[in-house]
Design brief:
- This protein has 164 residues and is of the alpha/beta class.
- The protein has one domain: 2-Layer Sandwich (Nucleotidyltransferase, domain 5).
- The strands form two sheets. A five-stranded mixed sheet has the order 5-4-3-6-7, with helices on both faces.
- Helix 3 packs across helix 4.
Amino acid sequence: MTTDRSAIAGPSSDSTVAGRVKRVLALDVGDRRIGVAVSDELGISAQGVTTIHRRSWAADLAEVARLVDVWKAETVVVGLPLTLEGTVGPRAVSVQTFMRRLTPVVRVPVVPWDERFSTVTAERVLIDADLSRARRRSVIDKTAAVVILQHFLDATHHETEELP
């Protein structure tokens, strides 16, 4: 199955308004955990917030909605795990299902973002920080969400720099 590249957010996404980046919440959705990160108010940097341990659809969606409210996020970016070829595989289909269920609950735009290599990048960052294997395991999902969000912010920041 191939993906429609226009369905994945890029620099032209609705993440900026009149040169202002909105507060963005990012999710790295896995089968057992959801990593969460949030942008600063200027939309320059991403910080890890928490890791949600998945329990049920209702509980997971309610917790994400609560975090959207707490952080006053105006957009939710969800990492879409495309295959190396850029196609939608089983993991991406699962994340798309999560996004469809999340959208009416949070009532803000839910935007997919290509997350290829985000977990690998996060793992390297944590190894470079000399974290133990156990500590890395406890923060890897949150760190992957930071990587996803930082890529999103960097792409949207470059777009706003090019505006007249």
